[in-house]
Design goal:
The structure is a single chain. The two termini are 33 Å apart. The protein has three helices and two strands. Helix content is 82%, strand content 4%. The protein has one domain. A two-stranded antiparallel sheet has the order 1-2. A hairpin with a 2-residue loop joins strand 1 and strand 2. The chain is elongated. By secondary structure, the protein is mainly alpha-helical. The longest helix has 34 residues.
Length: 90
Amino acid sequence: MKTVASLLTVVVIGINLFFVAVFIQQLPAHWAIYLTMAIVVTLYMAFVVYLVSQMLHVELIHRHIPHNGHLCYTLHGLCCYLVSQLYMFS
């Protein structure tokens, strides 16, 4: 189910970016319009990256990484866990 939801999310983001590209081509050629659209698209992509990072944080760190009997909530803990998994298989 999560895979289907993730694929649907990618499709929706792709459609949004397509419509933005079509919309920008129809605008008059003026630097202020292009600057405004660049800012809006950058903010939109930053928001998408933020949402993806939060999803990964919840999925990877909070649910799957035990650390000394409790869950690890830091990037350092994630790195330690990944390194320990690498050494476990070698």
